[in-house]
Design brief:
Helices cover 40% and strands 15% of the residues. The chain is α/β, with parallel strands linked by helices and 539 residues long. The chain has two domains: 241 residues, Glycoside hydrolase/deacetylase (TIM Barrel), CATH 3.20.20.370; 276 residues, Vaccinia Virus protein VP39 (Rossmann fold). The strands form three sheets. The chain has a seven-stranded mixed beta sheet with strand order 12-11-10-13-14-16-15, sandwiched between helices. It has a five-stranded parallel beta sheet with strand order 3-2-1-9-8. Strands 4-5-7-6 form a four-stranded mixed beta sheet, with no helix packed on it. The longest helix has 15 residues.
Length: 539
């Protein structure tokens, strides 16, 4: 899971403290509209009053240590706290005590999530999937006593605010007694600890530390965070916002969007005839997850940029044909904007065409046009079309995946024949010059060059810009109206991103790529770096 901003949650272990301390903390956080999550050790009137409106915001705080007043063994302790608060869905052990038998029993009793781990000021915290079934863990980001142990008692919030601004889930844990008494360090805590259960409005001034401590820090911190518009959630709200199944980062974010091959298959492919290559490639696409809208696009952010660029080139109404349409995602995206247009997609993979029908069924309420999809060899389909019958023809990596330059030129010749006068070819394909230019930068900064083909991308047959420009204009008669590229996106996603995450492998679903897309959307579409280029060609 990648979390792109901070999600704050205030929790509190009540640790047998007095109701005055609990109410003191509640009064403070309530002034900011914050609902805390309490972890209860004992039967408290203040907690029960709070539970009347916030039942899901009270969890258990069992003490599993030796000589615990909760019980002599872990089962007795769990029985004790469940009798107090039988509807609890969460827990945090006293002093973060943990074991597999405890977690198993808690899960069997209906506990859904815990906060039983402290990762002091660790950035980018996400929910954790525990080995015990059905349990999610939300680690603590900041805790009052952990703070004085790690800082020696530095309570100047300005020295730590940067840590709170880094994205991630930020569970704050404050003990009501430590808050009310403004405890600054362990020595002071041990000195007054025995009075925790007896603190009241009448005697609080005897125990509250006059200086910088946990109370002054939390007040300054929450004032700062809320002034910046940060929101606080209960732990139960976070549990619902980050479902367990979404908390696991797949080892491979491209599953279903690419076909894995052995290196021997990669080498074998380039020894095949053109016909054999096409059969081999068709088999690949039959194995894709065609119901995934990005079934043919490992880099889905780049795919969205391509579709945006294609959309800008479609102006006067006329029939649109997408050859090698895959599962139809581009046409379906266009159909949300173009009203009552004739949109046709053709692909040789029956699996992908079925995927297109599935996507239509999902998006039908948003469509202004209804695309039709045909399972057929795209070149055969083109050859059957009348001269000058189509206004727009789209290719997205269709030319790239044809097995030879001759087959690429033949396809372009048929496209030219079928296009109407002043019809447009929107050719979004991979070019050799942009590919090499990007690799030059990668090597310059110490990254490995991207291989022209690989076992995961074995069919890339990029076009030579100069050769094809000459062929398209001089031999066929196309006029090049414009070339759109995604240089900024490629520099960020293929150079900056891998440099920033090294030695880890960059991921297509990274926040870096999302930011790269956002930046590219707000800048000119300049070619130069990166293979993918959209050629706007007019007959």
């Amino acid at each position: 899971m990648i979390i792109d901003r901070s999600y704050f949650c205030l929790t509190s272990d009540i640790d047998w403290t007095s109701d005055y301390c609990i109410k003191d903390l509640l009064q403070f956080v309530d002034s900011f509209g914050i609902t805390p999550t309490f972890f209860a050790t004992h039967d408290s009137t203040a907690v029960r009053e709070f539970m009347e409106k916030n039942e899901d915001a009270v969890g258990l705080h069992p003490n599993f240590l030796q000589n615990s007043i909760h019980g002599t063994d872990y089962l007795a302790v769990i029985n004790h706290v469940f009798k107090l608060y039988p509807k609890a869905k969460s827990f945090r052990s006293h002093l973060f005590y943990d074991s597999s038998p405890i977690l198993t029993e808690m899960s069997n009793r209906g506990i859904k999530y815990d906060s039983n781990l402290c990762l002091y000021l660790q950035p980018n915290i996400t929910p954790l999937r525990l080995a015990i079934p059905n349990l999610t863990r939300f680690p603590v980001f900041w805790e009052d006593d952990a703070h004085w142990m790690n800082t020696g008692g530095d309570w100047d919030v300005n020295n730590f605010i940067g840590a709170f601004e880094i994205p991630g889930i930020k569970i704050l844990n404050i003990h009501p007694f430590i808050f009310s008494a403004n405890v600054p360090n362990e020595d002071y805590y041990l000195k007054i600890k025995k009075h925790s259960g007896n603190i009241s409005e009448d005697n609080i001034n005897r125990f509250r530390y006059d200086g910088d401590g946990a109370r002054t820090f939390l007040i300054s911190l929450i004032n700062y965070l809320t002034s910046k518009g940060e929101e606080f959630y209960t732990l139960d709200q976070l549990y619902k916002m980050f479902p367990l199944d979404n908390n696991v980062v797949s080892n491979d974010e491209t599953i279903g969007r690419v076909t894995r091959h052995a290196e021997k298959d990669h080498k074998k492919y380039w020894q095949m005839t053109d016909t054999e290559k096409q059969h081999f490639l068709k088999k690949d696409f039959e194995e894709r997850n065609a119901q995934d809208k990005y079934a043919t696009s490992r880099d889905f952010n780049l795919r969205e940029l391509e579709i945006q660029a294609i959309s800008k080139c479609i102006e006067e109404e006329g029939p649109i044909l997408d050859i090698g349409c895959g599962n139809g995602y581009t046409l379906i995206s266009l159909a949300k904007r173009l009203e009552a247009w004739k949109l046709t997609g053709v692909d040789f993979s029956g699996n992908l065409i079925k995927g297109a029908q599935h996507l239509i069924s999902q998006e039908k309420d948003k469509l202004k046009s209804m695309p039709s999809f045909i399972c057929s060899d795209a070149l055969k389909y083109l050859s059957d079309q009348k001269d000058e019958s189509i206004k727009y023809i789209i290719t997205e990596r269709f030319i790239l995946n044809l097995p030879s330059m001759d087959s690429q030129k033949n396809a372009l010749r048929e496209i030219y024949r079928v296009l109407q006068k002043r019809g447009r070819l929107l050719m979004c394909e991979g070019t050799i010059s942009g590919f090499k230019a990007l690799n030059d930068i990668r090597v310059m900064v110490g990254l490995e060059a991207i291989q022209e083909t690989s076992a995961d991308n074995l069919s890339a047959n990029r076009i030579d810009d100069k050769v094809f420009k000459e062929y398209l204009s001089s031999e066929l008669g196309f006029k090049l109206q414009n070339k759109f590229g995604f240089s900024n996106y490629f520099i960020i996603s293929r150079v900056l991103h891998p440099l920033m995450v090294s030695p880890l492998k960059p991921r297509f679903d990274s926040k870096y790529n999302e930011i790269a897309k956002l930046i590219q959307e707000n800048l000119d579409l300049e070619p130069g770096y990166g293979s993918n280029v959209l050629w706007l060609l007019e007959k």
